[in-house]
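Q: Could you predict the 3D structure of Glycosyl transferase family 28 C-terminal domain-containing protein?
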Amino acid sequence: MIFVTVGTQEPFDRLIKAIDELAAVVEEQIVVQAFESSYKVKNVEVCDFLSPSEFDKLFFKARLIVSHAGMGTVITALTHNKPVIIMPRIARLGEHRNEHQLATAAMLKEMGYVYVVDNEINLVNVLMELLQRDEIKPLHRIGKYASDSLIKSISDFLKSK
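A: Sure. Here are the predicted structure tokens for Glycosyl transferase family 28 C-terminal domain-containing protein:
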């Protein structure tokens, strides 16, 4: 199962339409959590609101997460060893208030933490490639807690003040 989550602040029709069109040609259940959309889906189940427990159930059941470049989803995926594809919202297309998701995506791509796509065609291509695999592995994993080196760095910084 693929779980697609785009947050609840703004519609993300570009991503939803690409996922819906892909769903017509793949044999994989796709569940979408999305804020209201002007695009009317035909091939996927859409939930506009999920309780935290419903969200977690779908998130942990999924073998792949597709998301906007929201750090909450990215961090949850990385701490729970879930592969994630992100497609940043673009403010100039009316998908967000500013272009911070482009910067977030660029940083995560440079770090090699997640699959990053910049448009619908690349999203479908990466999804098709990954769905051919028996197992989709995450590109990176992070711990649930701060590393000893991070704690030491913060502690040293605070002691110096």
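Q: Anything worth pointing out?
A: The chain has one domain: 2-160.
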